[in-house]
Amino acid sequence: MAHFEPPQIQDNPTGWGPCQVPDQFKDMPYQPFSKDVRLGKVSDWTGATYQDKRYLGKYTSAFGGGSQYAYYHDEDESSYQLVDTARVQRPMYQRGRRLFQQNKQRRERERRQQQNQANLQVLSKTQKNRERDRQRLLKKWQKQFGKQMQENRQKTPLKHRDASVQVRDDWTVVEEMDFPRLTKLNLPQIDDKNDLVKCGGMEYYDKTYDRVTTKNEKRLKRINRIFHKVTTTDDPIIRQLAKTQGNVFATDAILATLMCCTRSVYSWDIIVQRVGNKLFFDKRDDSEFDLLTVSETATEPPQDEGNSINSPRNLALEATFINHNFSQQVLKMGEEKYNFDKKNPFIQGEDDSEVASVGYRYRKWDLGNDITLIARCEHDAVMYGPNGELQFINVKSLNEWDARYSGGVDWRSRLDNQRGAVLATELKNNSCKLAKWTVSALLAGSDQLKFGYVSRLQLKDSAKHVLLGTQQFKPIEFASQINLNMDNAWGILRCIIDTCMKLKEGKYLIMKDPNKPVIRIYDIPDNTFESDEDDEEDSSDEEEETESDENVDK
To answer: In angstroms, rounded to a whole number, what is the distance separating the alpha carbons of residues 262 and 185?
Structure first.
């Protein structure tokens, strides 16, 4: 005989629904819902539901769009692009089509306006008012949404950038630091700096360049002088100082890169060698570490490739070439020099006139926790202040390559009257470069930081340039103007040093990820980045070191 088996009902005293999840539904994701939530159609092909704004949220859950059913792949596919974004060269017969379409649209727009005017003449007064209101509302929507659509259409996807050095399979990541965490670090400003050694000679700044304007621009000259960009461990004075004092050694350029790393976009790398309880920060011999970036932090950084004069690498070469020539052209060459106590340690057989004007200060900072930092800092020139006092200055150049891609600010028309707008655009497009220059000036103790505004003579010629004006700032005031927090910069440096101090003895590589705001520290073999020539020269290094030590003692 048929009988009815009643289902087992669970009593829920605190609410409604089952007390426990059945086994067959145990691992299924659950989207919370409310009893009054409407269930929409399985498939609505009409599209009429979402045209009326009153029903936009008709089927929206009160709990919001949950991510319970979202699919996440295990591997990182953030850099994967399905669409080929390479620019396709159109044939000749298609190149004028855009202009033809614009003219056609303009004629069509004028025809509609004339037709609307004719229609208004035969309407009553009330109908005219309604038609005007409708057209006004239509224009408002077109202005609001048309501009947004145009901006979205103009945004081109950024191309995948390459790392500054190819990561090998036998390298292991020992530490990873993301920029949001680094920006929160803080270390009270370190003022305990002492000059250990001062050497080199600097020329005096020619103040006639302060009067250069866009009306009386000056051509940039090509000056063939030698610039020594010697890394830390190749510096004979640092080698000698490392025997007696300090346990962290670097140059001002390396320190500035580390302290301003949170502003960087392009990839860079620095070698760290831990020898005993000492740390040496070096750059690679064949790296592009000393090249100046151009529009690195711009909204749309340069993306040209190959031999284009506006490719990132060619722009960097052009900016470095301009900076070297400008920093020497504005000096009184061939006249008396201001010399420190000791000679330039990197001059080997060259004439003093062939070497760029530079003064080196080897300074010491106490960072606490038994960390003593020694770094080589640089001045570019000297000048007399308003009260006749001697001032040490750093001379740098900002370069304009194409106003259309740098915020639309044309230097020749804006520099004299709206210099603030030009500088603000440069601060936006070259935030990292300006911050590194400022940090280097502060580490060296420079009194002034002088900028030159250099532009191309012709838009498509990257070999000829003109100087349009100069401007100078006190480094500490300029740091506050560009929102550079030195406490945070020292905190970042101290964090990186502490991390490297915890590692075992060996060789490491600090590298900025080319496409993410992340710094990684790799453990690399000791013989990485060393050529056969270095191994052959190891035997003669000791002799050279003893000779350089004797020269420093003298």
So the answer is: 11
Instruction: Give dist(CA 492, CA 261) in Å, integer.
Output: 9
Residues shown for the chain: 554
Residues with Cβ within 8 Å of residue 96, at least 6 apart in sequence: none
d(C-alpha 489, C-alpha 183), whole Å = 9
Q: Which two tokens stand for residue 350?
A: 């060259």
3-state secondary structure of 432: helix
Cα–Cα distance measured from residue 357 to residue 385, given in angstroms and rounded to the nearest whole number: 19
Q: Which residues pair with 376 in a beta bridge?
A: 251, 362
Mean pLDDT of 80-99: 61
Residue that has been written with the tokens 């990257």 in this structure? 462
* Secondary structure of residue 506 in the 3-state scheme: strand
Is the distance from CB of 259 to CB of 439 less than 8 angstroms?
yes
Contact 440, 252 (CB under 8 A): yes
Q: How many CB atoms lie within 10 A of CB 442?
A: 24
Structure token pair of residue 36: 């009054």
Report d(CA 25, CA 405) in Å as an integer: 57
Of residues 309, 261, 266, 272, the one with CA closest to residue 291: 266
- CA 368 and chain centroid, separation: 30
Which among 479, 470, 386, 409 has a CA at the least distance from the CA of 440? 479
Locate the domains of the chain by residue range: 172-553
Nearest C-alpha neighbor of 326 from the set 437, 446, 453: 453
Q: Does residue 228 contact residue 350 with C-beta atoms inside 8 Å? A: no
Report pLDDT digits (tens) over 36-71. 656 665 566 565 555 666 666 666 665 555 565 565
Looking up tokens 């005219």 gives 128
The 10s digit of each residue's pLDDT in 387-441 is 889 999 999 999 998 887 766 788 888 888 888 888 999 999 999 999 999 999 9
For 223-241, letters b (16+ CB in 10 Å) and e give eebeebeebbeebbbbbbb
Does residue 274 contact residue 508 with C-beta atoms inside 8 Å? yes
The predicted model scores a pTM of 0.70
